[in-house]
Amino acid sequence: MRNPLLLAAVIFTLSVPAAAQFVRLPDAVPDRPVVVVSGQAEVMVAPDQVLFRLESENVDPDLKKAKARTDEEGKKILELTHDYKIEPQNVQTSYIRISKHFTPITPSQPSRFDGYSVKQTTTILLTDVSRFESLLSDLVKAGVSDVSDVTFRASQMRKYMDQARALAMRAAREKAVALAGEVRQGIGKAISITESGLTVSSAYEGEDSSGSNYVRNASSVDFDPKAASDNQGSIAPGMISIVARVKVTFELN
Predict the structure, then answer these.
(1) Tens digit of each residue's pLDDT (9 = 90 or more) over 72-103
(2) Which of 200, 196, 204, 194 lies closest to 215, judged by CA?
(3) Do residues 77 and 144 touch, judged by C-beta distance below 8 A?
(4) What is the DSSP letter of 30?
(5) Which of 153, 187, 218 is the last residue of a domain?
(6) Which of 98, 123, 153 corresponds to the end of one domain?
(7) Residues 119 and 208 in one domain
(8) CATH number at residue 75
(9) Is the per-residue pLDDT at 165 higher than 90?
(10) Same domain, 41 and 161
C-alpha cells in the first residue's frame, strides 16, 4: 500500500514548477525598440487682470452698530467700483456673517466676550492693470478693514497653457531625434504621451512642484495695503510663468 503522505508530497513538489510557468513579464517591457524622452517648456505671460479680495469686519457690543459700520464700508466699496466703471459681473459680495467675538487669552486674563463681529467679503476683478494702485489707494482711503489678497492674472490662461504644452511636445520630439541620430537611427510615430505636470506661478517665486495639472492660475502678491497706497508706483506685477512637462515614447527606426 502506498503511503498517502508520500504521494501528496510528490504531487506538491511536481506542481511548483508548473505554477512558475504562468509568471508574466512586466507590461512596461517594450516589445519593439523605442526611445523614451521628456520635454519641458515655459511660457511667460504679462498679467492683464487684478483680483482684489476685500474683507470688512467690525466688532461692537451693539450688533446694530457693528452691522451699520460694515454696511457703510460695503457701500463705499460699491461706489468705488461704479467710479472705476467696473462691470457688475466683476463685483461679488458675500452674505454678511455674524458671530460672537472674544478677546485673546493671555497669561493673566481669560478670554471674554467683547461684542459681535459682522463680516462681509467683496471680490473685485479689475481688467485694467494700469489702474491697480489708484484703486488700491482709494479702497484704503475709503476705510476698507482688510485687503486680504491681491492676485495678478491672465485672462487667456487656457490659450497660454496650450502653447506651453505644444512647445513641450516639440522639445520632446527634438530630443528624441537628437538621441536617435547619435546611434544612426531615426524615430517613428509616438506610441505613448503622458503629461507630467503643468505649473503656473509668479516668474519670481519658487517653482510649485505639486505635479497637478492645474496648480494656480495667478501670481499672488502679499503686501501692506496702507504702505502700498502711500508709495505710488512701487508695485510691479511681474510676469506669470507657465511650465508644461511631457513624457513621450517614440518608435525607433
Answers:
(1) 999 999 999 999 999 999 999 999 999 999 99
(2) 200
(3) yes
(4) -
(5) 153
(6) 153
(7) no
(8) 3.30.70.2970
(9) yes
(10) yes
Per residue in 31-76, pLDDT tens? 789 999 999 999 999 999 999 999 999 999 999 999 999 999 999 9
Which structural domain range is residue 80 located in? 49-153
Number of domains within the chain: 2
Residue 116 has pLDDT above 90, yes or no: yes
**Torsional sign, CA 130, 233, 76, 95:** positive
CATH code (residue 204): 3.30.110.170
CA atoms within 13 A on the CB side of 4: 0
Q: Where are the alpha helices (DSSP H) in the chain?
A: 4-20, 63-83, 132-141, 157-182, 225-230
- The reply to whether 77 and 124 lie within a common domain is yes
Q: What is the C-alpha separation between 215 and 209, in angstroms, rounded?
A: 9
Query: d(Cα 244, Cα 161) in Å, to the nearest integer?
Result: 8
Angle 163-49-161 from CA coordinates, rounded to 5°: 15
User: Does the pTM of the predicted model rise above 0.70?
Assistant: no
Greater confidence (226 vs 213) lies with 226
Three cell numbers written together for 182? 547619435
